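#struct-pred

JT: dropping the chains for the assembly here, can someone run the whole complex?
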Amino acid sequence: MEDYQFLNWSLLLGSFGILILIGYLSSRAIKDSDAAGFLVAGRSLGPFVGAGTIVATGFSGWGFMGSPGVAYEFGSIEVLGNFFFAPAMVIAVLYFAHFLRKRAEELGSCTIPEYVSQVHGGGSRIERWVKGVAAAITIVLLLVFLTSQIKAVGLLGASWLGISLTESAVLMIGVIILYTMLGGLAAVAWTDTLMVVGMCIGAVVMMVQIFTDVSLTDFVDRLNAVDPELLNPSTAAPYGESKSSVFLVLPYAFLFTAVLPYMAVRFLAFKPSVKMHHVAIWVAPLGCLLSLVPIIGLYVRIAHPELADSDQAMPAYLATFLHPALAGIITLFILFAMKSTANSLLHTVSSAASHDLRTALFPNSNASNQRILWINRSWVAILGVVGFLMMLFAPPFMLSWLGILGSGTLLAVMIGPVFISSFWQGNAYGALAAMFTGLVTSGSFLLFTNVGWVEGPLYGCLASSVIYVTVSKLTQGVASAAVARSY
Amino acid sequence: MLSQSWTMEWFVYLNAGIIVWSLLAYGYREFIYKGGRGR
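RK: done, full complex below.
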């Protein structure tokens, strides 16, 4: 076992070296001479790197650790539910990304809060309010999500390397901070692309192992022998009572890709000449490959139906069915899945603080490009450390809950100003009201009721969208007067 | 085989569907509709 621990350390340190090298090379390639270099990779992403970073960020550690656990407990409904992220990403890339990129390019937006404020206009004062509020909510909710990702990556790294959670979390977040500071979004996107390749290799290796061990017929028969509900459920639990509830994941995942600042900012970072069907042709196979991973939960269920904790499905699989050396490599790829989400979250929260909040609070600042770059980099380090400290003090049960609360609620906050505004243009007052409504509604559903994790944010989205339109219509006169006063 | 599980039936058909859709979108944009910069 000691030999394999040495191998695990070698894999980790080797991967760290490569990630930091990519961060360095990307900083050289992009030449962070202005804010757009750090914030949107100088709008330089090509189809494959763009697709890689979208898929890697969207498929977090949940797909590798949480989802197989849910599949172990509830069966194939989770395989279907988790899969919907793949078509949702393809739809968002094909039918929304071009619009968002074009409009952001025309306005000169480098982040989603900035885009929201510029799209709604209304005079410099109200624009600053919209940008500041969007940035503040983004920071709070995504820091919560980042905390859960740091804890997840720390826990897995600790058991893999035989060290404590704190030591492991310091190592992982330290490297993420380093390469994100070096190269900004370009470093995040390039490392994501490397990591998504690793994640896909991991998925293929595990599927080959499973289906060379059991035939499909045998697999179905043995699952039915354990419980026929696993393959043919009469409800969509844990997604809801009605079978159709699982299909709600598709609109949820579409909004997740199109609206969340750490996903949607990738659309702003594409080269203007990149055609979105060239991106979708990569997103589809990568997403489909990664959506196979929860099948592992079903496989472990037929081999070890007695697991006390379903969350142990993936660790049990790695320990039981793979050679320790191969299990070590697959664990590295699972760490990649978590890190590729964590680095995107860190980049987005630090951009919201260093760019959006700064320009909202100090609109007349004349800081040089060099100084702005160092402000951006400093905030990456500051918020990385804050996320780590929050992880140390967050109650253990909150691990997955924090992720759902952070991303789901932010989705309800952003739907009106980012998505509804693409086909019905509201004003800044509508955007502000929609953001508060989404925050309160989705947050309350998730914190104080028993509705599912998909339903709560979707109710929040509905309320937020209605308020966006209603308040924009009611304040049409006020908004026009404010614009007139500001000029 | 697939008819034994409505979830896996949807899973397989939707997987195939999204790959075919992305290919059709690629073919359409690349060879039939060429309007719009960067679209």
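JT: nice. Residues 26 and 34 of chain B are 11 Å apart (CA to CA). Chain B touches chain A at residues 1, 4-8, 10-11, 14-15, 17-19, 21-23, 25-26, 28-30, 36-39 (CB under 8 Å).
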